[in-house]
Amino acid sequence: MRLLATTLLFAASTVFAAPTTRPVSWTVGDTTFDGVFVYDDASAALRPGLLMVPNWYGVNDSAIANAKTIAGTEYVVLLVDMYGRGVRPTSAEEAGKAAGSVYADRLVLRARINTALDTLRSADGLPLVSTDVGAIGFCFGGATVLELARSGANLAGVASFHGSLDTPLPAGAGDIDTAVLVMNGADDTFVTAENITGFESEMRQAGADWQFVNYGGAVHCFAEPDEDGSAIPGCKFHAPSYRRSMALMHSFFDERFAND
Predict the structure, then answer these.
(1) What separation in angstroms does the CA of 202 have from each of 61, 76, 138?
(2) Closest listed residue to residue 238, CA positions, set 248, 250, 227
(3) Would the pLDDT of 91 be above 80?
(4) Phi-psi category of residue 259: left, alpha or beta, with phi > 0 → left and psi -120 to 50 → alpha
């Protein structure tokens, strides 16, 4: 009965939670970036902060809806713009070009995501974020938070959902100062066996605290509810892996924030 009561209370709190959004901007060099804070404003309690880097379409209505689901009553989420003001892809072709331009210079990528991290930590005018901060990302965003970890950023942990694993700037011994969780589709044709082997070797050489989880039956985009496989072959939502990966993410950050 106690478990049932707790479950019902959690469900009720989720139903009546009212995530709100607040735009926020920052600059890196000459470029201005427009992100969104997402949080439940029904409580003034401090809560952990999560950077959330969306897939290659960037900040859009779908990403905001996903951020609201993840924020719930648990986190203050900063939905990160990695492209800059006015760059909002609406097709796979546009998204590929935008993501490719960021991937092309990993030092610029790292500068952008680290500035977003600083923005979340300062959270000017938003006194809800505790000292506990983590980062998550989907596809392009997953690769981005792995670069954040490789850059030596100090935060509780990073979690990548079906993100690319390779990098031209692999971490060396002692470079990674955060726990790393990678969730991958076992049938993802965009992530090769060589990519996985290389990533695992990199994490071992860096001396990182890392986990790599393969989800059977899942392909790329398994945690993207909007993807039905029609736009990009091999990019499709997989409900069982979505549920399991979200549960694992929450468990990962529960542990990390408790120990941070």
Answers:
(1) 35, 31, 21
(2) 227
(3) yes
(4) alpha
Per-domain boundaries in the chain: 19-259
Cβ contacts of 42 within 8 Å, gap of 6 or more? 16, 17, 18, 73
Of residues 110, 124, 40, the one with CA closest to residue 80 = 110
CB 260 within 8 A of CB 132: yes
17 band by pLDDT with thresholds 50, 70 and 90 = low
- Stretch 107-121: mean pLDDT: 97
Classify domain 19-259 by CATH number: 3.40.50.1820
Confidence of residue 216 (pLDDT cuts 50, 70, 90): very high
pTM of the model: 0.91
Report the distance separating Cα 255 and Cα 156, nearest Å.
9
Alpha-carbon distances of 253 from 49, 75, 158, 222, 246, rounded to whole Å: 11, 10, 9, 20, 11
d(CA 70, CA 67) in angstroms, rounded, equals 5
- Work out the pLDDT band at 107, boundaries 50, 70, 90: very high
Q: How far apart are CA 57 and CA 166, in angstroms?
A: 20
